[in-house]
Design brief:
The protein has 239 residues and is an alpha/beta fold. The chain has a single domain (67-238), classed as Vaccinia Virus protein VP39 (Rossmann fold, 3-Layer(aba) Sandwich), CATH 3.40.50.150. Helix content is 41%, strand content 18%. It contains nine helices and seven strands. The chain has helices at 3-18, 32-40, 47-59, 68-82, 96-102, 121-130, 144-147, 167-175, 204-218, and strands spanning 86-90, 110-115, 137-141, 155-160, 178-187, 222-227, 233-238. Strands 3-2-1-4-5-7-6 form a seven-stranded mixed β-sheet, sandwiched between helices. Helix 5 (96-102) links the parallel strand 1 and strand 2 (110-115). Helix 1 crosses helix 3. The radius of gyration is 17 Å and the shape is globular. The model has no long low-confidence stretch (mean pLDDT 92). It binds S-adenosylmethionine. Residues 65-67, 90-91, 93-94, 96-97, 114-117, 143-144, 161-163 line the site of S-adenosylmethionine.
């Protein structure tokens, strides 16, 4: 077992025990035999991302937040399919998905990525610069609800991956600014099995994610589908 995997498992165990009983989530969400099989049958992780994944597991708190190769490959392929000019990412963490999304940018394209925690800024900018993404990725430090209105223009891809309690607000802020044919993708929309349970837990994250799922499904400006990678990606395409 890789050291990174071992640390991730310990961190997940700690997270599980720390949770109040009323907030129990399903860990691991997917049968680990299936998850391992999916992880084994995906394109090899690029070296720069392998290094970033390792560094994240060694040096950062809650490394399990990273997108990783399975989800990252999906995001990269989607981005390459539509060659976006502008991408918005909400929740940068160590920048794994940011790089995957940037790999599909069209000529002169830009990823705007928002991270509320200023402690990541130096690491992110130097890593993007070092890996050759300096002119393709702009890091914005602050709360996404404050930053999004300050970023000009429309988006071809929006990736929502932070602050679950505000998913519906992010949707309402971004859907108007998504170009026709553009994609809005949101992570964790099955919230490790908490959404869809009857009775559904009443914590604000579960309620907000469930509201987000209903909002996008009932919006006739988009077509949408859940992709059950890890604990679920929602993908919507603007019609
Ligand atoms: C799940 S991680 C993002 C993972 C990343 N997209 C990746 O693929 O590796 C969520 C990140 O969002 C940040 N965050 C939380 N609330 C936020 C907010 N209101 N605005 C911007 N970033 C936020 C957290 O500090 C954390 O680094």
């Amino acid at each position: 077992m890789r050291e990174g995997q071992r640390i991730e498992e310990l961190s997940l165990k700690f997270y599980r025990y720390r949770k109040d009983m009323s907030e129990i989530q399903i860990f691991p969400f997917i049968d680990s035999r299936i998850e391992n099989y999916c992880e084994e049958n995906v394109s090899k992780e690029p070296k720069a991302l392998e290094e970033l994944d390792r560094k994240t597991h060694l040096c950062f708190v809650r490394p399990n937040m990273i997108s990783g190769n399975w989800q990252g490959t999906f995001l990269r392929m989607i981005s390459k399919m539509i060659n976006p000019k502008t991408i918005l990412e909400i929740g940068t963490f160590t920048g794994y998905a940011t790089i995957c999304l940037a790999d599909g940018l069209g000529e002169g394209g830009l990823v705007h990525t928002i991270e509320k925690d200023g402690e990541f800024e130096e690491f992110l900018n130097s890593n993007f610069q070092e890996k050759g993404y300096g002119d393709k990725i702009r890091v914005h430090i602050g709360k996404a609800l404050d930053i999004i209105p300050k970023i000009e223009g429309n988006f071809d891809i929006v990736f929502i991956d932070a602050d679950k309690a505000n998913y519906p607000e992010y949707y309402n802020l971004c859907i108007e600014r998504l170009n026709k044919g553009g994609l809005i993708i949101a992570d964790n929309i099955l919230w490790y099995g908490k959404v869809g349970l009857a009775p559904m837990p009443k914590d604000k994250e579960t309620i907000a994610i469930n509201n987000f799922n209903k909002l996008i499904t009932q919006d006739d400006r988009v077509e949408n589908v859940i992709i059950p990678i890890r604990d679920g990606l929602m993908m919507g395409r603007k019609l």
